[in-house]
């Protein structure tokens, strides 16, 4: 990974204006923030810049408005950010023009303001040079702290890095260092745990990973597609039968690359998908026509755990079963706890990401025990696909 400058490389900031691209796109209910994880992630960068005497202007999108839409205003989120920061936060009712000029003039050195939703302007998603220039007009420096939006080449995530001196914030820096350690220059052997419902959503991930890792552990609904490709009758399980050839191709690529693909040889099956439905552990060759696979079995989990114990690095994306409903959470919880214990014991570096993944690891109670858990969804997935992320590439040009 090319070098990038961090906020530790910035010159004296007293009285300077720093545009910080954060991710304030948080879940809201009844005007209140439902989960402040992303707000807390922004605190180290904003606080460090403010403590250095900068005037900090926070940029973010929120939702998918088409033009100005007060339902998507960042104003209520600016109040929540102030609470998390423990500092006053001003608000500008636009992200360009006179409202920004006015808020900058009123801010003391070390002051913080949130600017209104960048997506109120069509120029944001179009990465329009005129809009980039309008955003940049207020600032002396640009800091990108929104890895979760780095897969988008938008004005506030990519364009600004070309017109102002650009730096990575603390969250961005932590993400990039973790990803570099996980797949860039990892300690081997490397394992990847990939779960989730559909192969179709992760074809590029799987194709990329077989060239990068030593062990590819496949779970969730997508394991059914691989089993079916091997001639296993998976009953009425979720399965993309039309992707059997794709699964066979991925397995052939893995064999050529020296990557071991791990598929379950025992599974948990049920006739209905509901909490505490009658279920049984079955050998994969003993799945009945009216049964569906909803988790991988205990013998398969034990085999995966044994393989993990031989590894130095693990990348995790997606649950191994229908973890939202007991008892189909057992495999995900068991393997996550094994990975966490190995991490805490110092023998395994663990990096995880993706929406379902974060929820599954929280359910297993291990979020504090992994080396790094990314808050990014789409950006983490695109990184696992081996794609260049525009917001990251722009920082590397500095």
What is the topology?
Layout: E1 17-21, E2 28-29, E3 32-33, H1 37-51, E4 55-59, H2 75-85, E5 90-92, H3 98-106, E6 112-115, H4 122-126, H5 129-136, E7 141-144, E8 166-168, H6 170-184, E9 190-194, H7 203-209, E10 215-218, H8 220-229, H9 244-257, E11 260-262, E12 266-270, E13 279-283, E14 292-296, H10 298-308, E15 313-317, H11 330-344, E16 349-352, H12 355-363, E17 372-373, H13 378-384, H14 390-396
Parallel strand pairs: 1-4, 1-7, 4-6, 5-6, 7-8, 9-10, 9-15, 10-11, 15-16, 16-17
Antiparallel strand pairs: 2-3, 12-13, 12-14
Helix pairs in contact: 1-2, 8-9, 10-11
What would you report as the Rg, rounded to the nearest angstrom?
23 Å
Question: What is the CATH level 1 assignment of the largest domain?
Answer: Alpha Beta
CATH A-level architecture of the largest domain: 3-Layer(aba) Sandwich
Summed up, the domain count is: 2
Low-confidence stretches: none
- CA(first)-CA(last) distance: 13 Å
The CATH topology of the largest domain is given as Rossmann fold
The helicity comes to 25-40%
Strand-residue fraction? 15-25%
CATH superfamily of the largest domain: Phosphoglycerate kinase, N-terminal domain
Q: Please summarize the sheet with the most strands.
A: 6 strands, parallel
CA-based shape:
elongated
What's the average pLDDT?
Answer: 95
Strand order, biggest sheet? 5-6-4-1-7-8
Helix/strand-derived category reads alpha/beta
Q: Count the E strands.
A: 17
Number of helices: 14
């Amino acid at each position: 990974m090319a070098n990038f400058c961090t906020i530790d490389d910035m010159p004296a900031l007293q009285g300077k204006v720093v545009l910080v691209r954060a991710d304030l796109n948080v879940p809201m209910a009844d005007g209140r923030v439902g989960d402040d994880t992303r707000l807390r992630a922004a605190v180290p960068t904003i606080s460090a810049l403010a403590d250095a005497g900068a005037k900090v202007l926070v940029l973010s999108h929120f939702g998918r408005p088409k033009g100005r839409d007060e339902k998507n205003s960042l104003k209520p989120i600016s109040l929540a950010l102030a609470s998390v920061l423990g500092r006053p936060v001003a608000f500008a009712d636009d992200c360009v023009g006179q409202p920004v000029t006015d808020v900058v003039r009123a801010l003391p050195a070390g002051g913080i303001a949130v600017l209104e939703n960048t997506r109120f302007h069509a120029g944001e998603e179009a990465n329009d040079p005129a809009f980039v220039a309008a955003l940049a007009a207020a600032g002396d420096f640009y800091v990108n702290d929104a890895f979760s939006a780095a897969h988008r080449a938008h004005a506030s995530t990519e364009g600004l890095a070309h017109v102002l001196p650009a730096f990575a914030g603390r969250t961005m820096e932590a993400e990039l260092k973790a990803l570099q350690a996980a797949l860039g220059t990892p300690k081997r052997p490397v394992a990847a745990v990939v779960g989730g419902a559909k192969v179709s959503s992760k074809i590029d991930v799987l194709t990329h990973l077989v060239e990068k890792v030593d062990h590819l552990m496949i779970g969730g609904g997508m394991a059914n597609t691989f089993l079916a490709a091997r001639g296993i009758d998976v009953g009425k399980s979720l399965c993309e039968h039309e992707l059997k050839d794709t699964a066979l191709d991925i397995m052939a690529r893995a064999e050529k690359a020296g990557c071991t693909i791990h598929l379950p040889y025992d599974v948990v099956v049920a006739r209905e998908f509901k909490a505490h439905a009658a279920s049984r552990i079955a050998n994969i060759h003993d799945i009945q026509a009216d049964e569906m696979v909803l988790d991988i079995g205990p013998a398969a989990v034990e085999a995966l755990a044994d393989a993990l114990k031989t590894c130095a690095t693990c990348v995790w994306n997606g649950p191994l079963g229908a973890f939202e409903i007991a008892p189909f959470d057992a495999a995900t919880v068991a393997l996550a706890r094994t990975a966490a214990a190995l991490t805490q014991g110092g023998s395994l570096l663990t990096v995880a990401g993706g929406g379902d993944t974060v929820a599954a690891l929280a359910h297993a109670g291990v979020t504090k025990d992994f080396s790094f858990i990314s808050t990014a969804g789409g950006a983490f997935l695109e990184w696992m696909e081996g794609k260049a992320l525009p917001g990251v590439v722009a920082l590397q040009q500095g």
